[in-house]
Amino acid sequence: MVKWNLDRLYKGFSDPSFAEDLKRLDLAVTRVNALAPSLHGYAAVEQTIVGYLEASVALATVADRLFAFASLTESVETTNQEAVKHLNALRLKFTETTGTDTLFKKWLGGIPAFEKVLASAAPIIQEHAFMLREIIQNGKYDLDEKTEMLVAKLRQSGSNAWDRLQSLLTANVAVDYEGSPITLSQVRNLAYDKNPDVRRKAYLAELDSYRKIETPVAFALNGIKGEVNTLCEERGYASPLDQALIQSRMSRATLDAMLLAMNEALPVFRKYLRRKGELLGHPHGLPFYDLFAPMGGITRTYTIPEANAYVLKNFKSFNDRLFQMADKAFKTGWIDYTPRPGKVGGAFCSNIHSIGESRVMTNFDGSFGDIITVSHELGHAYHGECIFGESILNSNYTMPVAETASTFCETIVNKAALREATSMDEKLFLLESSIQDYTQVIVDILSRFLFESAVFDGRKTTVFDENELKNMMLDAQKKTYGDGLDPDLLHPYMWLCKSHYYSGTLSFYNFPYAFGLLFAKGLYARYLKDKPAFVAIYDDLLAATGRSTVEDAAKVAGIDVTDPAFWRQSLSLLGEDIELFLKLTE
Predict the structure, then answer these.
(1) In this structure, are residues 42 and 105 in contact, taking their beta carbons and an 8 Å threshold?
(2) What is the Cα–Cα distance from 130 to 395, expressed in whole angstroms?
(3) All CATH 1.20.140 domain ranges in the chain, comma separated
(4) Is the Cα dihedral 512, 518, 519, 524 positive or negative?
(5) Is the pLDDT of residue 215 over 90?
């Protein structure tokens, strides 16, 4: 089967059980809100916490099932008006407990000697101890209820509006390419074209198009970063970076250790970039437009059964649980494979806690890259498999650890493919494709981190025009790419085209990518050292990610992520691939 099967959820929007669950959702919302009167005093603390947790579990379970069905249906049938209608109604319904949730958070933070209460509390309270502590910890940064409501309203005409402006302008700007108008996403995709002349012309056309919108987008960036600075100061965060780390459940010590190791590894990446530049005829470093130039190639295409068999063969080498899960996914319709009209692009995995299964969407066309995509998304499904044994309230893990299992599974399959490559073209393609990805996640992400840090720092006292932002972007790129890139052919507009910079609630949407890659690679290095011992603790680590800081989750595997040595070990694995590339291209 090439389409997924959602019958475990519902057989359709007309399924009687869908209507029944909508009624259950109403009752669950009412049950949560009925607790509000008990949140004005501390006469029955344990009973109140238990009541709130039980009501929240019931609400989350039915909401998870309904929302999964509506959103998954809409993702492959974007014109399905019934799906859109139910999605909008569900989102509105979810807001109905906001008042009670806010009240509970404030009430919880006011409990005298909470740790003493926790020590002798009911099992359900102890099970959710991390979540409850996190609510209290984060509550320190909340403003009073009236101010929070005002902030939410002002954000609609502040950062949210600036965000929409950037999206609108970049989505609609006409790029003049070879005399014809094309979109920004179309011209940026030409960076992967095999023809060097196409890549160069596309780059020049892309840069030229930004001049039409650079002034309003610069205003948008200034507006958002200024708002974030103001609110962080008002809430009591040390900085926007401090806020981002707290949201990520990650310490500054971990970030500093990782950044130190990344900076130390930059010379290795520059060697790769210079070599690629030489191979493509560029003596002064690689031009930005050739960063994604393909090298080598795999001509073979794969059927869906062939792709599935390849994934299964390699998953079996890790452990039986991963193999069995993937086998079940293939046989029982967890995956929606092929493109069709009305289906969204890209790929994703949705963990559905309420049924203990996941669903994966891809746009499979038979390339080897699609095998990697399937293995990556099934890694997310495996993470879900390990989380499903936890309470649904303990199933939300943060972005730094979100890519752990997916990158790990991708690495298993990629390494096997590299070992089995039968021609130099295949080996070079597989190796260089991986190194391209590493370079983006280490070198480019570091440049984005430096740029965003500089913008936040400067916005405390000034407003940047578009020329200043371009120079700051170039400065950040020169610091990380160094002599690996041609200094006259960089990309001064990377701040304009990346939506990651334009959120008022999620800053530094960059370092978590580096953490995800390097943490997974570090785990893979541990796996290679002692496979039986690692397999025994891997599932426990994944299960802990929804109820732990990243540091505590890593400790399950005996890893100290505040130690630069761990990150150096991860980066050395990437360095081995680069050294092999240099050897193959001598």
Answers:
(1) no
(2) 12
(3) 16-140
(4) positive
(5) yes
